[in-house]
Amino acid sequence: MKEHQLHWREWVPDFLLLALLWGSSFLFMREGAHAFGAFPTAWVRVTLAALMLTPVLIWRKEIPVLHAHWRPLTLSGLLNSGIPFACYAFALMHISTGMSSILNATTPLFGAVIAWAWLGDKLNASRALGLALGFTGVVLLASDVPGGISFQAGGSGLAIAACLLATLSYGIAGSFTKRYLQNVPSIVTATGSLWGASIGLAIPALLSWPSETPTLQAWGALAIAGLMCTALAYVLYFRLMTRTGPARAMTVTYLIPVFANFFGVVFLDELVTHWMMGCAVIIVMGTALASGLVGRK
Description:
The protein has 297 residues and is an all-alpha fold. The protein has 13 helices and no strands. It starts with 11 loop residues before the first helix and ends in a 7-residue tail after the last helix.
């Protein structure tokens, strides 16, 4: 079905629910990270999600397809889940959920850069302007971190760098998936990549497992992050991509900071400044231009 033929009721509910789930994931990841640490938090999240989706894969008799593509799926999992989730878990121990989610909005920005450098996508004037605008917004946002930028252990500079490494990893994963996994069923891609991330994170997670037993509240937060904000969210995302195409599905990234900042203010008493919102607008505008979502006739 062509994108313009879709009625809003066919995609907007999934779109809003997906933004809500991914926006709330910053809250639950923060709760888990302070109790578990970065690697165990990411490992528990992807493993729970993989366990939830595996029965669906078995029911659809897609296990042979997963086996045939296990190598690229493993690498895709590290790029699309393992590295980003560990980076955000680390960052959320040092900067606010709101700032982390705004930096997450640069994902299509890095996606555009990687697609240009790797896949040969055209970089016209509007896209180049978008790249400059988006990265300017990141610099301005980072310049207003409370206490200033610090690259010492646990400093805000390392946290911001971790967020940007996560979005860079997402960008690489997008081009990698387009090149090597384009014809693989979405449920296989989702489940296989989550297992790949789980395997890749297992040793770092076990080596850094907390000596004190995490609270039930921390376990509950990671259960929600894994089952709802990852497994269910992946199903919604791939269904949205199928119905609307990747361009419209990708714009969910722009709505995530709205929910993440809302939850941060309500549940964590975080402060959202006018400067943060202004930088968010600049980043979103730049990313929209760079990814080609605006600027076309």
